[in-house]
Amino acid sequence: MTLQVINSPFNEQQVKILNELLPNLTSQQKIWLTGYLAAASAEGPAAVQEPAQVAQQTKEITILFASQTGNSQKIAKKLGAALENPNHQITVTSMGDYKVNNLKKLDHLFIVASTHGEGEPPDNAISFYEYLHSKRAPKLDNVKYAVLSLGDSSYEFFCKTGIDFDERLKALGATSIVPRIDCDVDFDADADAWIQQVTEALATSTAASPAAQTVQVPTGTSDYSRSNPFYAEVLEKVNLNGRGSNKETIHLELSLEGSGLTYEPGDVLAIVPENSDHLIALLLAALGFDGTQKVTVDGNESALQDALKHLDITALSKTLLNKFIPYTQNTELGALIEDRDVLNAYVYGRDVIDIVETFSPWTWTPQQFIEQLRKIPAREYSISSSYAAYPEEVHLTIGKVFHETGGRYREGVVSGNVATNVEIGDKLAVYVKQNPNFKLPADSVPIIMIGAGTGIAPFRSFLQEREEQGTQGKSWLFFGDQHFVTDFLYQVEWQRWLKEGTLTNMNVAFSRDQQEKIYVQHRLIENAKEVFEWIEQGANIYLCGDEKTLGHSVNEALITIFEQQKQLSRDEAADYLKELQKQKRYQRDVY
Amino acid sequence: MTEKIVLPPQEGPFSDVERIKEESNYLRGTLEKTMEYPISSGIPDDDNRLMKFHGSYLQDDRDLRNERAKQKLEPAYQFMVRVRTPGGVATPEQWLTMDRLSDEVGNGTLKLTTRQAFQLHGILKWNVKKFMQGINEVLLDSLAACGDVNRNVMCNANPYQSKLHAEVFEWSAKLSEHLLPRTTAYHELWLNGEKVVDTQEKEIEPIYGSLYLPRKFKIGIAIPPHNDADIYSQDIGFIAILENGQLTGFNVLVGGGMGMTHGDDTTYPQLGRLIGFITPDKLLETAEKIMTIQRDYGNRKERKNARFKYTIDKRGLDWFKEELHRRLGWNIEEARPFQFDHTGDRYGWIKGEDGKWHYTLFIQNGRIKDFEDYPLKTGLREIAKVHTGEFRLTGNQNLVIGNVSPQKKKKIDELIKQYNITAGEFYSALRRNSIACVSLPTCGLAMAEAERYLPSLVEKIEVILDDVGLRDEEIVIRMSGCPNGCSRAAMGEIGFIGKGPGKYNMYLGGGFTGDRLNKIYRENIGEEEILSELRPIITRYAAERLQGERFGDFVIRAGYVAATTDGTNFHTV
Predict the structure, then answer these.
(1) Residue extents of the structural domains in chain A
(2) Closest-approach residue (CA) in chain A for B37
(3) pTM (2 decimals)?
């Protein structure tokens, strides 16, 4: 066990002392200490607080989550479990399902919120977010609250949704009982610490009974996560793109045997990556460091070149560059950060190696350098198989990311590795993430699926599931990519499902097979009448793919369809789409 | 009143293809729908059968078949389209259009076929219509270029006797036109023609009827002494008869054909039999009546026994002649004398009797493309831009730049030099007399390589020829990837018919002038054996041949193989 500032509630000094102490403890000493600390934390507050006359009061605890991919929901549920107590009336619910007129009656409110896209709330939180920020939001003077935000520091608007909720609740008069924590992609430790703080603060504020339950820390046996992934064996690897394609899309089949892991259609598999030796060698050369030098990460001493495998050396963010500034004598780095547009243009496609090469001379030691880096974030992929169809297996559809920027060829840390190096029989570190906002409806409900490129993945899972269930519901797939001949991912499978009736309709758009570019949104519009009929019949719409290239255009196309078919104004049509989204009849998995 | 063509009854059920034709509503089937279906670039088998009548069929790149199956992709489907060019004559404008379309929708190459037609490969389903419309603009079509109908009519590409060639060519074009299917399906499907409401069968297809022929049907016209149309291989062969330099009529050959099935001795290649002579005015009538006999009596139960040659062999030539005379209402005359000298082409510049010039190029395996060090396609394009005569595709897959005026000759000669276009004078005589069919990777029937392999095999045989001083000795060598025989391998002095990957049946003893089938010499052998078998034979030929003795005649005299005197003894060793 090793501690560091970012994965523990301790400060640097404490981490240093603990890391000196902990490795030297015997097993027996550790067990004794665990028991001692648990008892101390349970009894401590009771010893210093006044006897609890308020302990008899039942506290209303509302835990709301704003989840896009399921992380917030997971943490919210964990918090709910941690707060289990006869005196606590706990409700854990999605913001999308929360009735806003209950806001006034709030007692304790805990929010777990992720941030999406350009600092926007997740789809299912938009209504709540907008209401809370509107003039209609009530005064919340009596409300005690805490916020945990989830984000990815490689994005410009890191944790913005959580920050917004925190500030808005404060503005509405609510009292924070635990400072907000902004978690990066490796949030497990931070989230656990926050849960602990909330538990303690709640106990303190209410002077709860001495019998307060100890926090349940995940045991790690079946609860796989970023810090405790399952090592899944690669059973099959195929490049789905035919010869001559501009793309390389890898179909992976992984074994989940022995893991106990399961998943539902729409869920996501995260892969915990390692940086390649090649990339690390480039970085070391740029730094002028010897890779065999020892550094300490999480209290563990290792060679610099090994430590770098697990640190994020690709994504660039303003946060990271700010941390770098004190270590360079080059004033241009500071200048770069000043202008948002210039910065965004610069960081696009670039990585830490570019920064190191460009903004020298640097003053940092190897230890100082690695301390600026965050852990390498897991990469998430929509699962492309159904567990019912492939028990103890999970299939992924991974598009290789590659480009040349600044004269250097670059690959995605996971997708490049999977495409180039991974072989059948190798193991990948993975864990399953639920995606409650991308779920198949009841058997009989028609579904319209819209995907481009690897966005096809969850729909393969959907159809496998429906085939297994012998579902009667109609289904319609819109798929787009560049070329029919080379890029029609899983072509023969769709053909079979069409023939057998599992798939009712399919339309394809191959953008580069003709002079004019044709995309899925055009196919939607072409089929406007029938698409609308399906929606009127209660069809759910699913969209999966790139937000920039697909998400917006499909939204516009759907709005156009409503405008035409329902005789609505553009705004009314847009509201109608929002309403569908609110009713979870329009679900999106965009990235 | 319903007028129907009533076929004489045949025992047993018709083959499935007959059903497809019958249900097709005169070659329409469901093509309109399936050619548009966007989820597959292929079409169902039934429609593919009908597609052949429109001059096209579905193929796939067999090199990629397994790889794509693993990638969960359907086969790399593509269409081959064969363009009907009666007599192999194309204008420069037509040439330029084919050249352009091969780049726009094809695989960038043109294939000149053994039946003097253009063939394009690699056309995606969505581009077929565009291609058909493109060739229609220059008055070309692909109707009946394949299928159970009369195919492209061949004609001697004679560059010497210009006037005579023009006259005979006219007859080949008239024959082609006369025997075309009359259904409007082609116009409807590809040229956005109006749909015609069904009327009576005799009005829709007066010659063919709704079932068309039992099998493909081929007609060619030769002008002795040139037999580049391989006249004995045709279902009907017409041999132009000249008296005092004037065309007096045609000798008629019936019942030739190449296809057979490995391991089935009831199938065999056969030569046309001479039945008499007709005057030119009787040409169309005679061809039509011969074809209707095959229509009525050809085997519709089993396609591999359905060619005209089996119809005649089953009932005898006497029966056939009687039936023909009955249908004509007059008797054809006694055959007139004629003499063939060769089947190959004569390369380089030749001056015609009218003072116009003709340049015959050697096109290896009929493939027009820009090779790494040989910009053939570009060169021909540049020539087509200035050429005011015509292009003639030969039955040997070669090309004649025909009817060049003395003024234009200089310019075209410059272009020939500029693009290094060769008449074939640098090649061995063996290579100049070589023909290979397309075979792999596009042909679905192929069992072994042909076009992609024959050039390198020839190179190895050339080593033997060089050793014995026979580089300039003309020997006809032909290779087909399967026994259907598109390259007419059963008529080569040396013939190879594919059996499996890298394995061929080797045949010897075909007639140099195209008047004798060859005979199997070795079965199922690879390159090493081919070369070790050929070396002693060629060496002996060099040493022991008689004055003017052809290789195909020598191997029979020397006892390597017995002469095949008739298709029915082709398999008799």
Answers:
(1) 5-52, 56-205, 230-273+378-433, 277-371, 447-590
(2) A507
(3) 0.81
